[in-house]
């Protein structure tokens, strides 16, 4: 049965009124996400559609919080407190029922869902038009993206397709995965085609997210097929790594958040750089020692991914420091090569070696499936460092307990204490 979204804090929609952020629409070619005002949903008309779209982009980008984008690196052995200490203790400290980052991530994702559901509700009441269709496609993409983040962290979560005041319970993760695929099917039909601007959601972005979603469910052959279709489409090609992470136009990004300085709190870079760096920073997290030894000699990702400044190790993918914000790549072609490589098994070696060649590495020739999959996993860790993949990669492949040393129950995030205190319908994941 389809559930509706509660405005109670019990469903993590804290302080959210039944309003929509409307934003001014810039005359430039990029989206202007700066919020200007709010209006009740029933007063929105066709003339507000651009502003409604921009407000949705704003919500999905910002509400989840900056650590959300690196959460799987924080609990996946890639990052640790800048002050050092035990990596296992660091992971255990985050995966607590009362930890603020976990609570903020849950609530932020559901706040974003509230906004997306509002958009879909309003679009349904407006006259049919090409613009309405495109906005609906974008909204379904974002709902799939939000639920991917939720189900990959918590497993069973409330599946909410319309906003409501009811207190909700959790749905099986299988139902959530199915809904994600259903939303992406609509996005593939209704979202606009990619026209060279990766700061807009497109049909191709929906297909790329579908490949990620299929991989997350261990539907390996299906994931590989979707990824290969995207690779063969000609819309994208592997590009220089420095272009991707130095805000330079490139052919590899499929969808990214522009992360405009004036409206964003997603200041990832300040978490990584030190005061000794030219751009300064607060140096909250640093790469683990293992990450500092991750890259082969000549790998052109190394200098763009990690660095040492005044004897302190830093993540180098988001270079603005305290001076501004960096674009956030959400989906790019490098991931599609890795999905195709993993999903096809040894038959995917050409895709793995093609990515390695683009990163200035020589081809490899693993002798068996286990050796090959280990090579793919290593390449994923290098390629997607500090982009929010590592922990779930270990979880979905059954290696998290062995590699990280965590307890089995920590292969899911805990439901935040506060959410359960105010909503007894939310059960806790076993072990917490």
UniProtKB/TrEMBL annotation:
Subcellular location: Cell outer membrane
Key words, A-Z: Cell outer membrane, Membrane, Signal
UniProt xrefs under CDD domains: SusD
Domain RagB/SusD: 317-403
The organism's place on the tree of life at top rank: Bacteria
SUPFAM superfamilies hit by this protein: TPR-like
Coiled-coil stretches noted in the UniProt entry, renumbered to this chain: none
Stored PROSITE patterns: PROKAR_LIPOPROTEIN
InterPro entries associated with the record: SusD-like_N, SusD_RagB_dom, TPR-like_helical_dom_sf
Domain SusD-like N-terminal: 43-215
The keyword Membrane appears for this protein: yes
Location, primary (coarse class): membrane
Family per similarity comment: Belongs to the SusD family.
Descriptive protein name: RagB/SusD family nutrient uptake outer membrane protein
């Amino acid at each position: 049965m389809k559930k509706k979204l509660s405005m109670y804090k019990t469903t993590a929609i804290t302080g959210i009124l039944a309003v929509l952020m409307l934003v001014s629409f810039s005359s430039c070619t990029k989206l202007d996400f700066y919020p200007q005002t709010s209006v009740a949903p029933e007063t929105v008309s066709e003339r507000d559609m651009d502003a409604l779209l921009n407000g949705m982009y704003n919500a999905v980008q910002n509400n989840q919080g900056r650590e959300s984008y690196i959460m799987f690196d924080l609990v996946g052995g890639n990052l640790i407190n800048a002050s050092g200490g035990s990596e296992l203790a660091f992971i255990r400290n985050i995966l607590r029922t009362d930890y603020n980052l976990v609570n903020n991530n849950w609530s932020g994702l559901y706040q974003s869902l509230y906004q997306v559901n509002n958009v879909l509700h309003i679009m349904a009441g407006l006259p049919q038009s090409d613009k309405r269709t495109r906005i609906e496609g974008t909204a379904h993409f974002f709902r799939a993206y939000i639920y991917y983040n939720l189900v990959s962290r918590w497993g069973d979560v409330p599946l909410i397709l319309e906003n409501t005041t009811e207190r909700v319970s959790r749905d099986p993760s299988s139902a959530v995965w199915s809904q994600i695929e259903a939303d992406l099917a609509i996005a593939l039909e209704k979202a606009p085609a990619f026209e060279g601007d990766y700061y807009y959601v497109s049909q191709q972005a929906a297909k790329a997210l579908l490949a990620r979603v299929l991989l997350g469910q261990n539907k390996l052959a299906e994931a590989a097929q979707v990824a290969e279709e995207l690779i063969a489409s000609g819309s994208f090609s592997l590009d220089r790594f420095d272009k991707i992470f130095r805000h330079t136009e490139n052919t590899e990004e499929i969808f990214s958040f522009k992360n405009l300085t004036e409206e964003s709190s997603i200041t990832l870079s300040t978490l990584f750089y030190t005061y000794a760096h030219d751009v300064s920073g607060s140096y909250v997290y640093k790469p683990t020692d293992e990450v500092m030894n991750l890259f082969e000699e000549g790998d052109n990702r190394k200098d763009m991914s990690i660095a040492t400044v005044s004897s302190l190790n830093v993540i180098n993918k988001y270079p603005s420091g305290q001076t501004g914000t960096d674009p956030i790549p959400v989906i790019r072609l490098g991931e599609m090569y890795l999905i195709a490589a993993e999903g096809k098994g040894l038959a995917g070696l050409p895709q793995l070696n093609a990515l390695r060649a683009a990163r200035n590495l020589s081809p490899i020739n693993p002798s068996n499936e286990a050796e090959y999959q280990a090579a793919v996993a290593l390449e994923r860790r290098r390629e997607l460092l500090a982009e929010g993949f590592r922990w779930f990669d270990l979880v979905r492949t059954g290696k998290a307990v062995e590699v990280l040393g965590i307890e089995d129950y920590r292969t899911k995030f805990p439901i935040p204490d506060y959410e359960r205190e105010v909503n007894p319908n939310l059960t806790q994941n076993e072990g917490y």
